[in-house]
């Protein structure tokens, strides 16, 4: 709820019209809900007439028979109201839930296809809250606010008409006094809402510190920050409390004001109307009906003003959701994609590749990069941090397109292939393997949904995943926890290698882990990898000595340029930068 209040509002309530396409599948339910809504509003208004009958014919004429009839009418109306309310609430709320679910699905399906560069400029956490919080706001509108607004408008109009019919004199009095009362209540209401928002923000800061301190409890305790952090926390709590208390004061005043206005008006109406009853100008029943309608009208004005803020908030939410839906993927399939005929070992040619990230347009990350990798060749890439090695992998996978130059696989520019066709040929083993919530087997099969269990098992065996999975009670079905936190770094690395084995790629892109593997698992994984590299072309970002020394050809990168290429010994003798990197490697390995 806090989050819902925090979201920005939009003045353009009309934007909510764009929810309509999402409601199309539920036309029947909406029609049913509208019928129920009209029925319940009419019944609510008829209660006033029921009240009039009850008083004028039941009480005033001392007739038990008439009283019984009037009560029967009341019970009938109540039953109708209950049924109508059930149908309306059920239909409207379920349509709201369904529409929100549809929007969530559509937005996620759209966003998940956007180019990775989009996420450089848009925070994943913001997109997350659009898909969860903003859709909930839209759901509130479809599932309650819209129907509430409609029902109250209906009651407002009907109530005013019936008030005028019941007593013209009293109606005119109310219509003159009401705007003043409503205006002052709205003014206070706005102040309360503003303070509520401030209070939520304060509370959010409190929450941030709780999660930051508690999720890093070891660092907090090792740094002996418990007392200091508690004091910092207490300050934030105090700030939130101050605002909350101010809100409580204003709110208490608002409640008193509402009571005063409502019951003051009530007393005035009874006084003026009561005199008319005494004079015989109107009946007690008519007065009661009038008071009833006046209350209904006041209630509906209050409800509509509340709903208006909700509508604005939902309009803001819809604006943000539409913005996401309107974002076009920049990396797209060509209109007539070519198909790679070869499978297995492919030839990679990189031609005068230039690249800058859109978020940092003045930094040239790759400059005039040209090289070839022969089918089945295994090359190592080395270079200082930030040299552009991982960026090259990103371009090979077409997460980004080059600013100039091109990459060809077996002579075909990768932009001429479909994204799925290109990526089907490539397996990437990143330095920090990414695991998803689920079992070890599911994580391995992530790259090939529908793979047979035997295939998954074989890959797991080859990457020495079974070596640790078999010691766990559920074996390959062991859950890895959110983000794979229940596995060690080395185990995660092996799962990532198993994925590559299962995929049987034509091109293996391996960003070596520097330290995740112990000597023994490193040996086994290395063996598994060398079996894999025999059947495909591979490019390895090499951090480790073994790869550097065994590689037949090493590409040396610096600041986005290919500085040199050759074997370990060739480069050691002719490149100062390489010799320095190698020296560091040797020292580390030693
Ligand atoms: P390391 O060995 O440390 O992983 P690297 O050689 O793989 O380094 P890259 O990750 O390719 O280097 O980064 C090359 C340059 O591009 C760096 O200067 C980095 O700051 C920048 N860079 C990387 N990713 C982005 C991004 N998404 N947006 C903007 N700049 C980026």
Folded structure, characterized:
There is one protein chain. 64% of the residues lie in helices and 9% in strands. It is an alpha/beta fold and 590 residues long. Helix 6 packs antiparallel against helix 7, helix 7 packs antiparallel against helix 9 (226-278) and helix 14 (453-462) crosses helix 16 (489-503). It is elongated, with a radius of gyration of 35 Å. Strand 7, helix 17 (519-534) and strand 8 (537-541) form a beta-alpha-beta unit. The relative contact order is 0.09. The protein has a 6-stranded mixed beta sheet with strand order 6-7-8-3-9-10, sandwiched between helices. Strands 2-1-4-5 form a 4-stranded antiparallel beta sheet, covered by helices on one side. It has helices at residues 2-6, 20-23, 27-59, 64-111, 116-121, 124-166, 168-215, 217-222, 226-278, 284-326, 389-396, 419-424, 440-444, 453-462, 466-469, 489-503, 519-534, 545-550, 568-574, 576-589; strands at residues 348-355, 366-373, 378-382, 404-409, 412-413, 426-429, 507-511, 537-541, 553-558, 561-566. The chain binds adenosine-5'-triphosphate (ATP).
């Amino acid at each position: 709820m806090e989050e819902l209040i925090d979201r920005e509002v939009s003045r353009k309530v009309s934007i909510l019209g764009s929810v309509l396409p999402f409601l199309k599948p539920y036309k029947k339910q909406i029609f049913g809900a509208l019928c129920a809504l009209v029925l319940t509003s009419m019944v609510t208004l008829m209660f006033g007439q029921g009240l009039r009958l009850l008083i004028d014919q039941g009480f005033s004429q001392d007739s038990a028979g008439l009283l019984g009839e009037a009560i029967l009418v009341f019970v009938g109306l109540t039953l109708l109201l209950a049924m109508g309310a059930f149908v309306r609430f059920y239909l409207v709320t379920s349509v709201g839930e369904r529409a929100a679910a549809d929007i969530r699905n559509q937005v996620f399906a759209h966003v998940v296809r956007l180019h990775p560069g989009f996420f450089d400029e848009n925070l994943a956490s913001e997109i997350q809250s659009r898909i969860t919080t903003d859709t909930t706001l839209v759901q509130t509108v479809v599932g309650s606010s819209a129907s509430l607004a409609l029902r109250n408008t209906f009651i407002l109009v009907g109530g005013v008409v019936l008030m005028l019919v019941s007593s013209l004199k009293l109606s005119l009095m109310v219509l003159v006094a009401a705007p003043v009362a409503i205006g002052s209540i709205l003014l206070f209401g706005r102040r309360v809402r503003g303070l509520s928002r401030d209070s939520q923000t304060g509370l959010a800061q409190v929450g941030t510190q709780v999660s930051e301190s508690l999720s890093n409890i070891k660092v907090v305790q090792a740094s002996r920050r418990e007392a200091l952090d508690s004091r910092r926390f207490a300050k934030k709590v105090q700030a939130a409390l101050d605002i909350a208390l101010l809100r409580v004061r204003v709110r208490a005043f608002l409640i008193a004001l509402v009571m005063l206005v409502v019951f003051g008006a009530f007393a005035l109406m009874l006084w003026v109307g009561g005199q008319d009853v005494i004079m015989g100008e109107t009946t007690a029943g008519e007065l009661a009906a009038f008071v009833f309608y006046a209350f209904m009208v006041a209630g509906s004005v209050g409800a509509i003003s509340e709903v208006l803020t909700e509508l604005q908030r939902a309009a803001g939410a819809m604006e943000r959701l539409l913005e996401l839906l309107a974002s076009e993927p920049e990396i797209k399939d060509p209109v007539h994609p070519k198909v790679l005929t070869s499978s297995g070992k492919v030839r990679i040619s990189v031609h005068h590749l230039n690249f800058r990230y859109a978020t940092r347009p003045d930094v040239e990350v790759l400059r005039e990069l040209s090289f070839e990798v022969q089918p089945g060749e295994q090359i190592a890439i080395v270079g200082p941090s930030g040299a552009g090695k991982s960026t090259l992998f990103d371009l090979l996978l077409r997460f980004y397109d080059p600013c100039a130059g091109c990459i060809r696989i077996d002579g075909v520019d990768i932009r001429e292939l479909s994204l799925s066709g290109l990526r089907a040929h490539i397996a990437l083993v990143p330095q920090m393997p990414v695991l998803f919530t689920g079992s070890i087997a599911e994580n391995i099969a992530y790259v090939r949904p529908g793979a047979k269990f035997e295939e998954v098992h074989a890959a797991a065996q080859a990457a020495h995943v079974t070596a640790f999975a078999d010691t766990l009670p559920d074996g390959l079905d062991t859950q890895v926890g959110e983000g794979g936190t229940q596995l060690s770094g080395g185990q995660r690395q092996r799962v990532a290698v198993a994925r590559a084995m299962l995929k049987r790629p034509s091109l293996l892109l391996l960003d070596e882990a520097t330290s995740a593997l112990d000597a023994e698992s490193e040996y086994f994984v290395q063996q598994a990898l060398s079996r894999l590299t025999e059947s495909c072309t591979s490019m390895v970002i090499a951090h480790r000595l073994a790869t550097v020394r065994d590689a037949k050809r090493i590409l040396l990168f610096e600041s986005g340029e290919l500085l040199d290429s050759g074997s370990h010994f060739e480069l050691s003798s002719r490149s100062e930068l390489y010799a320095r990197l190698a020296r560091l490697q040797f020292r580390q390995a030693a």
